[in-house]
Design goal:
Helix content is 29%, strand content 25%. By secondary structure, the chain is of the alpha/beta class. The model has no long low-confidence stretch (mean pLDDT 93). It folds into 2 domains: 174 residues, Quinone Oxidoreductase, Chain A, domain 1; 124 residues, 3-Layer(aba) Sandwich (Rossmann fold), CATH 3.40.50. It is globular, with a radius of gyration of 20 Å. Helix 9 links the parallel strand 15 and strand 16. InterPro entries: ADH-like_C, ADH-like_N, ER, GroES-like_sf, NAD(P)-bd_dom_sf, QOR-like, Quin_OxRdtase/zeta-crystal_CS.
């Protein structure tokens, strides 16, 4: 098989395409031949060492979709030829093949292509745990979602609208503003030209919002707190601008007894049942048309480094996939 490897944490230039033998299958494992591979911000965190990798050389990526080519002993809920997807590892999805625990694989509905699954499963399950588990958004509520034009944001805007929420989304350009308006976003704030807290105050008539979904991190953290009403919840789920550091907990009391959580998807799909429930919820809203996944931007597997450069530079909208 071919795969992308790195010898140490660092920049995109460390990513090399190599050939490796396919490992032997152990009990409970499945060999998946990839048709499409998801590219996500968490992959860049692992490459740089923000989320340290356990050993080197190491593969990258934890999301892909493809065809089952072989199954190990004890696997009885899928068969060779099944269409599957996964988004919770193991690390090494940037490859033509990967050996995966059968318990982390989800069978794909016939209506969902491998490219759309690889482009959306991690992001879709992220949105699912944010708006359906941590803070179950109700019809009529007004919420703030940062980076609304990104891969997670574009799914979130659509799903929130399907739930009947009023959505305030932030973007960094007028082009991205047009994109999220077309997705149904009710109010769009360009954070490069406008004050997000001031605009939220204006939009809500001074009431502010009960919840902020923030995958940007360092650059938006304090401003997000200023958008929350008393006892509001700040969900900081990503670090696109760098990690949040040096937080004074007293600020939360001073700004209205606010609550903050820093979750990760793995803890919300930690069991087979939880993974299936979250996946079925996401596939259902896709099948109903509540969430539409656009054609992802495609890169060859050999061009994975360029995909990281473009993603980190915020030069993309929507989702990115690698094609082996």
């Amino acid at each position: 098989m071919t795969r992308i490897e790195i010898e140490a944490h660092g920049g995109p230039e460390n990513m090399k395409l190599v050939e490796r033998d396919i490992p032997d299958l152990l009990a409970g494992q499945v060999l998946v031949r990839h048709e499409a591979i998801g590219v996500n911000f968490i992959d860049t965190y692992m490459r740089t060492g923000l989320y340290p990798l356990p050993s080197f050389p190491s593969g990258l990526g934890g999301e892909a979709a493809g065809i089952v080519e072989a199954i190990g002993e004890g696997v009885d809920h899928m068969a060779v030829g099944d269409r599957v997807a996964y988004c919770s590892g193991p690390i090494g999805a940037y490859a033509s093949h990967n050996v995966v625990s059968a318990d982390t694989l989800i069978l794909l509905p016939t209506s969902i292509s491998a490219k759309k699954a690889a482009a959306s499963m991690l992001k879709g399950l992220t949105v699912q745990y944010l708006i359906r588990q941590i803070y179950p958004v109700q019809a009529g509520e007004t919420v703030l979602f940062h980076a609304a034009a990104g891969g997670v944001g574009s799914i979130a805007v659509q799903w929130l609208k399907a739930l009947g929420a009023t959505v305030i989304g932030t973007v960094g350009s007028e082009e991205k503003a047009d994109l999220v308006r077309n997705l149904g976003c009710d109010h769009v704030i360009n954070y490069r030209t406008e004050s997000v807290p001031e605009r939220v105050l204006e939009i809500t008539g001074g009431a502010k919002v009960p919840v902020v979904f923030d995958g940007v991190g360092k650059d938006t953290f304090e401003g997000s707190l200023d958008c929350l009403r008393q006892r509001g919840l700040m969900i900081s789920f990503g670090n696109a601008s760098g990690p949040v550091e040096g937080v004074n907990l007293g600020i939360l009391a001073a700004k209205g007894s606010l609550m903050v959580t820093r979750p990760t998807l793995a803890h919300f799909v930690a069991t087979r049942e939880a993974l299936e429930n979250a996946s079925n919820d996401f596939f259902a809203v896709m099948s109903s048309g509540g969430v539409k996944i656009g054609a992802p931007i495609e890169y060859a597997l050999a061009d994975a480094a360029q995909a990281h450069i473009d993603l980190s530079g915020r030069k993309t909208t929507g989702s990115l996939v690698l094609i082996p």
